[in-house]
Design a protein that fits this description.
CATH superfamily of chain A: Hydantoin permease
CATH class of chain A: Mainly Alpha
Largest interface: A-B, 56 and 34 residues
Strand content of chain A: under 5%
Number of domains of chain B: 1
CATH topology of chain A: Hydantoin permease
Largest sheet of chain A: none
Number of strands of chain A: 0
Number of domains of chain A: 1
Strand content of chain B: under 5%
Order of helices and strands of chain B: HH
Oligomer: heterodimer
Structural class of chain B: mainly alpha
Radius of gyration of chain B: 16 Å
Mean pLDDT of chain B: 85
Helix content of chain B: 55-70%
Low-confidence stretches of chain A: 1-13
Shape of chain A: globular
Number of helices of chain A: 21
Mean pLDDT of chain A: 88
Low-confidence stretches of chain B: 60-66
Distance between the termini of chain B: 37 Å
Distance between the termini of chain A: 49 Å
């Protein structure tokens, strides 16, 4: 058995136990992993959407700087300390507190949201694949597909990605590992070339052309739906499911020290700063050169770095969609015992591909990412509250494990109440999604402690 | 073989990194830049398979949640 295989099997062996010291990894492993993971297909969409939302250049620079710092601090001081002490996956840690069936329900919500995220990435890849076929790209406000060719290309891309996720995940994982450093460099190159195409030589010229681009995209006006606060909140919470939502417990349980949480700087400032800015400049350059305001990544990347850009968009979309579909398949399989992983992965791929046919999912990515955090991140507050506050408040930690219950109602209602209220404000009142992530997280933690006390789940 | 692949891989990444700057400062034209970037991409993928290992963390097989 090779050393790597041996390591893998040992890791699997400790899925439901603390990781032994010999399996722990230094922070170096995490720097590369985060930098690669956060320079992905979504970055090609998010940057341009800032321009179309009319965000000023100062607000992008400062909002992303502060928001990404807050995200790094959340990983470092909220997620990593618990991960390196408990050394459990989120799945198993949550199961101890919330119960087996509630974790399955949470996982299902995760899987469904994953399908739509993967759908957006299939759309991203399809815009690049469509270039040789002279595919007419859907308009920014389009909800439905604009041509049969678009539908056929999306279905073909979705079928290939789903099939590969179903039968060959390991190969894709290795390929994504290889592609990561290359993608980061291509993203950077896209930004440099876009700046050249904008023909700017000073900060004031960049500001002027940025404002002109917004004005052109908005039909002569400059309206903004995002100021500094909104950009900062978006940068902070776009991965909230992973940091304050504790999903990355599964990653940092391998870390020797909680200080490995600083490695997320690589992901935030390479992927969520440099890559978003580069992608935003790509749209500004496209507007200048072709007067097209449609933020489809394929043509934008082709305009700046040629065929390498098309390959980058396809690879970025593919390597993001693939694990997402795979994980959604695992979530569905957990809900339907007895089904095969292949059939559930193909089901997740089918849902994602159908979603990809509707370009609105990709074009509304900013709002979707906030929704995703609002629904999933609050569960992290349950883990946080249980870990730090249960004992001081006289509540039994790991209640489900102690009582043997399959659903801990204190967790269920603590999660559902703030999420339902937030969804009402977002869906019915039309409020912005990323305002609700932190309030939902705090409310969920407090309600969990209150319900646990009221339901008599005290120690002693 | 591994050493040569690694060397070629790093060289291709550096070319990929430098060509946009060369274009920015008018040292090369657009076609030359895009051509060099495509060639670097091909070299990277041909060589990286020989020296970049499997991802070590996380292992999805062991964690069915995001």
């Amino acid at each position: 058995m090779s050393e790597e295989k041996q390591s893998e099997s040992v890791c699997s062996e400790y899925e439901r136990e603390r990781i032994p010291d010999k399996q722990l990894k230094g922070s170096g492993k995490f720097w590369g992993m985060y930098a690669g993971e956060h320079a992905a297909g979504t970055e090609f969409m998010i940057g341009p959407l800032f321009l179309l939302a009319g965000v000023s250049l100062q607000n992008i620079f400062w909002g992303l700087l502060v928001g990404n710092l807050l995200a790094v601090l959340s990983w470092r001081y909220v997620c990593a300390p618990i991960a390196t002490q408990a050394r459990l996956t989120l799945y198993f840690h949550l199961e101890k507190i919330a119960g087996k069936d509630l974790v399955k329900l949470y996982n299902l919500a995760n899987g469904v949201l994953f399908c739509f995220l993967a759908g957006a990435m299939i759309t991203v890849s399809a815009t690049a694949v469509g270039i040789p076929f002279n595919l007419e790209m859907p308009a920014f406000d389009a909800i439905y597909p604009n041509s049969v060719t678009f539908v056929v290309i999306v279905l073909a891309v979705g079928a290939v990605i789903s099939a590969v996720a179903g039968i060959g995940y390991d190969a894709v994982s290795k390929f994504a590992n290889i592609a990561a450093p290359w993608m980061v460099v291509v993203f950077f190159g896209c930004g440099v070339v876009a700046l050249k195409q904008l023909e700017i030589s000073s900060w004031s010229e960049l500001q002027a052309i940025w404002t002109e681009s917004i004005q052109f995209a908005q039909g002569g006006e400059v309206r903004t739906s995002m100021g500094f606060l909104e950009v900062m909140l978006f940068a902070w919470f776009c991965n909230s499911a992973m940091h304050i939502g504790m999903s990355d417990l599964s990653v940092f349980r391998f870390a020797k020290k909680a200080s490995s949480g600083w490695a997320t700087i690589g992901g935030m400032y390479v992927g969520h700063y440099m890559a978003w800015l580069a992608a935003a400049f790509m749209l500004a350059a496209q507007i200048k050169l072709t007067q097209s305001t449609i933020p489809v990544p394929g043509p934008m990347a082709y305009n700046v770095v040629g065929i390498a850009g098309i390959i980058c968009v396809v690879v970025a979309g593919w390597t993001t969609a693939n694990p997402t579909i795979y994980r959604a398949g695992l979530a569905f399989q957990a809900m339907l015992p007895g089904t095969s992983r292949l059939s559930m992965t193909l089901l997740a791929g089918t849902v994602a591909t159908i979603a990809a046919v509707f370009p609105a999912f990709a074009f509304k990515l900013l709002g979707f990412v906030g929704l995703y955090g609002t629904i999933l991140a609050p569960m992290g507050a349950v883990i946080f509250a249980d870990w730090y506050l249960s004992k001081p408040l006289g509540i039994i930690p790991n209640q489900a494990e102690v009582s043997g219950k399959r659903i801990n109602k204190s967790v269920l209602f603590a999660w559902l109440i703030p999420v339902a209220l937030s969804l009402y404000c977002i869906m019915v009142l039309g409020m912005t999604t990323w305002y609700f992530v932190l309030p939902s997280w705090i409310a969920c933690g407090i309600l969990f402690l209150i319900f646990s006390r009221l339901r008599g789940q005290q120690s002693g | 073989m591994k050493k040569i692949s690694k060397l070629l891989g790093y060289v291709s990444l550096w070319v990929l990194f430098l060509m946009p700057f060369a274009y920015f400062f008018d040292l090369v034209g657009f076609t030359a830049m895009t051509g060099a970037m495509l060639a670097s991409t091909v070299v990277w993928y041909l060589t990286a398979f020989f020296w970049i290992g499997d991802p070590q963390v996380p292992n999805l097989e062991e964690d069915p949640l995001l």
